[in-house]
Amino acid sequence: MTANQTPKYKITTALTAVESIQAKEEDTAELKAYTDGAIQDGMVGAAAILYRKGRTNPIGTLRYQLGPDKEPTVTEAETVGGILAMWLLRGINEVQRTPSSIYTDSRAFQQILQKRRPKSGAHLITMLTKTTEEAAKKYAITGNHPRFNIHWIASHRQVPGNEQADKEAKKAAREGSLPTYDLPPALRKTLPVSIHAVKRRQLKELNTEWEKGWSKSQRRPWFVSVDPKFPFKKHRQMVTLLTRAQSSLLVQIQTRHIPLNGYLHRLQKADHARCKGCWNRSKITIKEMVHHYLFECPEHRVARSKMESTLGREAMDLQHILQCRQKIGTLLKFIGESKRLQISFGDVSTNET
């Protein structure tokens, strides 16, 4: 569809599931088509089913199998369902006289219809637009007033047409497409594999290969405390709003590879492993490690009292603290106020870089 073309379909999206059901009940369209896409037994299928107002039995059904689920996405299957629905409507004379409705339970399908240049399934959107224009041309539908309304409807709400479309889509995935002469011309040949699907498959293969390599890495046991699940999505989400120094400090705290005397002495970067604060106060030799620094050392009791007041019972549970972004902020504020690691990391109590 070019910049100057006006689509012959209108997109209507309800905000809630209840609103979508209510809008469907108030819809006076003579013809209503329901579409769906589904994955079944490792295959992807799409279907459309058409009803005439006041009747419970469908007047038309189309099914199409897109191929193995490693290639097409469910959203692309939903788009194919839209093409099938438009093809069914194309064969009904009432389209000339009254607007018709197409129902989908996929918001993603509606979203790519609204994008000027969708990244995924652009070729399918082109097919849908072409099929719509052909139907409009066949019945001499002119002007800019859309005759085909594409509605979102909530799934699993016991809407007969929607439930039947889901069954037909799964049947298409299992049993294959209907004979080619029943299908739109654009679907009578194998669909090209979308770039989005190729990228998705390649990324999955790369992640699998990376995960195998990581499981054998000597560094894996050290990083389990940071995020035990590969590929560390939770950890990446937690540090999204942190500075580089803050995120680096958190990793070093969890791996215990941090510039405190207990670790530096092991690397022969410090003359002793003892906590300087405890030694200066009481001449007591205590190894300066993460737990001692954060929760025990009296040198930082003032800053620690503020942290304990904020965190409450979880103030001594490091792993619990590191699971919450707000509590991480409280921990970083303590570290900043203690000034023990300021030479290495600067002021980590704020997000100012």
From the alpha carbons, calculate the radius of gyration and give it in angstroms: 30 Å
User: How many DSSP E strands?
Assistant: 6
General form: elongated
Q: Count of DSSP helices?
A: 16
Query: Which secondary-structure class do the elements indicate?
Result: alpha/beta
Q: Helix amount, in percent? A: 40-55%
Low-confidence stretches: none
The residue-averaged pLDDT reads 83
Biggest sheet, spatial arrangement of strands: 1-6-5-2-3-4
Distance between the termini: 46 Å
Amount of beta strand: 5-15%
**Element order: H for helix, E for strand:** EHEEEHEHHEHHHHHHHHHHHH
Please give a structural write-up.
- The chain is an alpha/beta fold and 353 residues long.
- It is built from 16 helices and 6 strands.
- It has helices spanning 17-26, 74-90, 107-114, 122-138, 160-175, 195-215, 220-223, 233-238, 244-255, 261-266, 276-282, 290-295, 301-311, 318-321, 325-338, 342-345, and strands at 9-12, 31-40, 43-52, 60-68, 100-104, 148-152.
- The chain has a 6-stranded mixed beta sheet with strand order 1-6-5-2-3-4, with helices on both faces.
- Strand 2 and strand 3 form a beta hairpin.
- The mean pLDDT is 83.
Please specify the SSE layout and strand pairing.
Layout: E1 9-12, H1 17-26, E2 31-40, E3 43-52, E4 60-68, H2 74-90, E5 100-104, H3 107-114, H4 122-138, E6 148-152, H5 160-175, H6 195-215, H7 220-223, H8 233-238, H9 244-255, H10 261-266, H11 276-282, H12 290-295, H13 301-311, H14 318-321, H15 325-338, H16 342-345
Parallel strand pairs: 1-6, 2-5, 5-6
Antiparallel strand pairs: 2-3, 3-4
Helix pairs in contact: 2-4, 13-15
